[in-house]
Amino acid sequence: MDMYAKFGCSEKASAIFEKNEACNVVSMDPMIANLAQNGAESEAFRLFIEMQKNGECSNAFTIVNLLAACSRVASLNMGKHIHTWSIHRSLMSDLFVSNALIDTYAKCGKLSLALNIFDRSEKDDVSCNTLIVGHSQWGLPKLSMMPFTGCLSACANLSASKQGKEIHGVFRRLLSTLHFLDNSLLDLYSKGGMLDTASKIFNRIAQKDVASWNTMVLGYGMHGQLDVAFELFDLMKDDGVDCDHVSCIEVLSACSHGGLVERGKKYFQMLAQNIKPQQMHYACMVIFLGVLVHCLNLLK
């Protein structure tokens, strides 16, 4: 049965399968997967429905193969059916299943559904690439670029600079006119240590908001260039941009990493005049000063 299915002989494989009275999930899952992989999509779908009626449960591997079959034949209804079944069987936490669903909806032209899965699921570079390809295939009006902030953020958090650069390159012309994506690009390149590229993007932004400044301060701070981080923080104030709670954490953390006690105290007092310090700001100072006391005790 497995041999016939793998060689694309779906009718012979099905005939053997039908004669096997001991068919259960152990034999049905491989059969469905093989049919789905070898161009017998309709037969794979039929067996899956039959399996459900018998109360059997497919595994994630079979679901991924079924969704790939849905993508090939653009079977939106079956894709939705499998999606619903996957939710009931708690398979949506499986990265391969969620990526396969993104691909199915994207191939069927249902980009909003693909984005919904993307936003709710664990992400990797495959998730981002699948979404990009889907948008490319169905056209890319400017409003549909909004979801790519999520792609860029995912690449930044995964340290997937290569994939992020590919996104940037593919959509460079559109990105140059869509400033809401600039902060996502700053996040990508600064977290990836590509500070020169981040700086070029930052300098071209006509109206920098607090998120733009915060991202650059964090980027230089986390990569040990504290002088540049402090300079940017001071320039933010000179530019008339008000600091927020994130700004406070970032500059205090930079002072802590550099052991700059007096500068840390000065920034804390200055920031306390503009915003109400929260528990996390006090905690940052306590840790900062606590480490200093510990170091002094060690020196003694």
Automatic annotation (TrEMBL):
Domain of life: Eukaryota
One term of GO molecular function: RNA binding
GO-annotated biological processes: plant organ development; RNA modification
Keyword line: Membrane, Repeat, Transit peptide, Transmembrane, Transmembrane helix
Residue stretches spanning the membrane: 280-299
PPR repeats mapped onto the chain: 94-128, 209-243
PANTHER family noted in UniProt: PENTATRICOPEPTIDE REPEAT-CONTAINING PROTEIN, TETRATRICOPEPTIDE-LIKE HELICAL DOMAIN SUPERFAMILY
Listed name of the protein: Pentatricopeptide repeat-containing protein
Species this chain originates from: Panicum miliaceum (Proso millet)
